[in-house]
Amino acid sequence: MSATGDNACAEPVKIVIFGATGDLTKRKLIPALMRMMDCELIAQECRIIGVARNTSREEWIQGLHAYVRDEIRDNAVLLQRWPQLERMLHFVEGDLSDDQTYMRLYRALDAIEDIRNVMFYLAIPPAWYVSVATGLKAVGLHRETDGYRRIVIEKPFGMDIESARLLNQQLWEVFDESQIYRIDHYLGKESVQNLLVYRFANSILEPLWNRNYIDHIQISAAESIGIEYRANYYEQAGALKDMIQSHLMQVMTLVAMEPPVEFVADAIRDEKVKVLRAIRHFHPDDISRQTVAAQYAAGELGGEKVPAYVSEPGVSPDSTTETFAAVRFYVDNWRWQGVPFILWTGKRLKKRVSEIVIRFRKPPFNLFDVNAEPPTANALVFRLHPDEGIVLRMNAKKPGLTTDMKRMVMRAPYAEDGHDVADAYEVLLHDVMVGDATLFSRADEVEESWAIVDPIIEAWKARVSIDRYRAGSWDVPGMDQLFEGCVGGWHRPT
Ligand code: BG6
């Protein structure tokens, strides 16, 4: 989806990928670019210039090909596109701390004629963001004298409010805000964008979308995977910074925002920032009641034994990093006053499910058999993953000579078998190419969200121990208490 409604082939661009041999490039960027070729969203003249050290163009290409061939399921279309992709690939060898690398990049770009636009994709650890921006400036590659220059930055964007502010300032010394695209891949998910359409293209939801009818809202991302090979990063980040400050708070802003005046990037981002500004800040004394942190212990998933977080390679045996985090937020404005927004996420949970649950208030009075089960509160669930779509839970009469009730579940899948669902990176790369920043975080959004979670980060720093949950379960201590007073309590995904 593009706010401009522009699903056409984007103008040719030279795509420079820093971190060309990294995981993100082979798992996400290259497959997304190939699928875009298949849908004719990317011009044949485009060129992809990989930058990495200690390898050659041939080795790089072999590595990418082996990944597409051996690791990607349903890869027939991608393999068909391979020869076309290979013709587009260029390579610049070099260290990111070496000025000569940027000089070589300059020459390589200059040698590709007739394409004026350049996108720089930073698929590298955050510690390198500023060095790369400065390196590009030193050779003048940041200047938009001819065509556009856009820089795409992955999360984490800073690790707290101070580092995020500093990073913004350092980037602004090189690029204008309009050239910076801060990626949050959750915003590229079709189902997340669909939320905006459900909200603003249907008139039945809006009258109910407020404190008068909604009891509370849960936004969750449960994962069954562990931390994989990322101990270094995860030990620093933990679930709060990894998922809540970025992905889930972004989704929360879309759920809570007012209708924008226009469907354009800044109008939408203005409304999102207003939500963030209305979020009640945490007092240090409230943090233990408003949050949950826990870490997975050893357990079983899909019939296999899995180790505890502290036994994962690279994790310190006495680590207290949280692999599960939940926060109860309040949005202090007229629409949402008093409605808890509970955001939670965790690794090594029973299932991979990501959803938004809008829990309505209970019916005010039970008109039916008082001896039977009372009606349950309605829930509207936006499934982000898997089985994207919406589910509405209502009460209905059990068939027969009775007024007993049963729960009726109405499901509306978003796309049959998920076939039409584009990957987030396809959507976002295309948006960068057409210059649509709607689905990217603006500097003020990032700073506001850090300012909100900073007191929690501070409070959690002092932690000397942490609660545990069994891997492969939903047994997270403290979650039922966190939902105290919420109709229906904690909704464990089914
Ligand atoms: C990333 C986090 O940003 O998002 C990972 O760093 C997490 O820890 C991932 O696994 C989840 O993304 P998705 O699209 O699989 O829900």
Morphology call: globular
Helical stretch tally: 13
| Mean of all residue-level pLDDT scores | 93
CATH architecture of the largest domain: 2-Layer Sandwich
What is the total domain count?
Answer: 2
Largest sheet: 9 strands, mixed
**Contiguous uncertain segments of 5+ residues:** none
Strand order of the largest sheet: 16-15-14-13-7-12-11-8-17
Distance from first to last alpha carbon: 29 Å
Which class best fits the helix and strand makeup? alpha/beta
Helix content: 25-40%
Q: How many beta-strand runs?
A: 17
Radius of gyration over alpha carbons?
24 Å
Fold-level CATH name of the largest domain: Dihydrodipicolinate Reductase, domain 2
Small-molecule components bound? 6-O-phosphono-beta-D-glucopyranose
Keyword list:
Dihydrodipicolinate Reductase, domain 2, 9-stranded mixed β-sheet, 494 residues, Rossmann fold, 13 helices, 17 strands, binds 6-O-phosphono-beta-D-glucopyranose, alpha/beta, 6-stranded parallel β-sheet
Structure write-up:
α1 (23-38) crosses α2 and α9 (265-278) packs parallel to α12 (443-461). This protein folds into two domains: 13-154, Rossmann fold (3-Layer(aba) Sandwich); 187-421 and 442-482, 2-Layer Sandwich (Dihydrodipicolinate Reductase, domain 2), CATH 3.30.360.10. The radius of gyration is 24 Å and the shape is globular. It contains 13 helices and 17 strands. The model has no long low-confidence stretch (mean pLDDT 93). The strands form three sheets. It has a nine-stranded mixed sheet. The chain has a six-stranded parallel sheet with strand order 3-2-1-4-5-6, sandwiched between helices. A two-stranded antiparallel ribbon has the order 9-10. It is an alpha/beta fold and 494 residues long. The longest helix has 26 residues, at 231-256. β15 and β16 form a beta hairpin. 6-O-phosphono-beta-D-glucopyranose (BG6) binds at residues 155, 185, 221, 223, 242, 354. 6-O-phosphono-beta-D-glucopyranose (BG6) is lined by residues 155, 185, 221, 223, 242, 354.
